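Posting for a labmate who doesn't have an account.
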Amino acid sequence: MKKLFVIVCLGLFVWEAGAQVNLPEAFRSNLKRAAAGPRSSYSGQFVIYEPTDTFQRSVPLDGAVRSNYVRVDSSLLAVTCERVKKAMLAELQMPDKWCGKINLSLHRARSLDEMVVIGSSQNGTDWQYYMDMPDTITPSRLVVAVVNVLLLELANRNSERSAEIPTWLVEGLARQLVLSSEIPLVLDQPAQGRAGAGASFLQSEGVRRSPLATANEELRAHPPLTLEELTWPADGQLEGDAGEAYRSSAQLFVHELTQLDGGRASLRDMIGELARYLNWQMAFLDAFNSHFKTQLELEKWWDLRVVTFTGRDLTQTWPAAESWDKLDEIIRPAVEVRTAINELPLRTQLSLQAIIRQWDFAQQADVFTQRIQQLFILRTFVSQDLISLVDGYRQVLDGYMKARAKTSTGRRVVLGLDSIAKETIAQLDTLDARREQLRPVQQSVQSADANIVLTH
């Protein structure tokens, strides 16, 4: 298996396929050299050293190979690292409070697919990190390497031992960042005859697709990985077609975890606890305890999410902004109200909570039965980010209707402010708060291509 990167603990050993070997002398000398004029990134966390082997030329790239690789220098790498960090912190909803400095040493690439070496040193609970990488690399490997060292820096804060970062988290989070970013994460040296830095091929052009569209296509064509396969990738699992299947499964796993109620907070907790445990599974179950009590519960949940995801065709789903608007129409139905007996009715929108508070059950039942049916249809077409939210509203309304049917016995229920109503209103308030968090910053005009009409 060709290694994409290894992790080094300075002064100790390299972890590679379970073997313990001496720290590579070339890496040791690179870290000790005092290169003139290192470049610091915007935040100051990244310090990049230019190659000193200026007499040597990097491996040549022909036209076909050139399209799959980028050449970076210290300035481009500084911007790339900051962009990846900003995207990762946004995905995890974290502020930038870095503690450990990351030193990056560039060297002239001698061959394609050279190893990226990640190292760390500590003084008590204070850590510094080191990366040695070729100046010619594929954009995906560059993002994975930066995400890996950033996660390591997060996990090791205030710890005297280095954390184990699970492969699925590194690969899945890196893929999610690349495909969800609105700007290119990786900058490339300009092609010959073209001025200015270029964007890497990782950033798609034209119409933006769902970040999970590639994963959806991949996992509909090839069997998704089991939780065990994600946890223990086999030799060769990260290469070729198998590597694409692994990264697609890992991206979906990370995404689905963030969509749980409080999922991002639990993921942050897990990362922060990794250094306290000998394996990530214990840290995971501790952080996600409110969702999964055992490994078996996690496996069952993952199996269900995979079946649901691969049963959808994301090429037929609406963009995020339009999906949000459609959901908003359903949960805030337009109704006609009269301010006085002799006045013409006015059409206005009411929240589901207001209907529960102000209408009797017979009136509620007509509206909520429609909403439940519409939500069931809607989940087929909304963007992946809203699936769990749509399901949440449908389950709450369905549960309310069933509970009310048992207690009303056909009698008129006025205002309904009993325990059933109060609990349902509280659940709807929680869902509304989640919906506001997912509100698109700039909502786009609804697509004329949408051919599904949800009637009120």
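Reply:
Got it, the structure tokens are right above this. The chain is about 45% helix and 15% strand.
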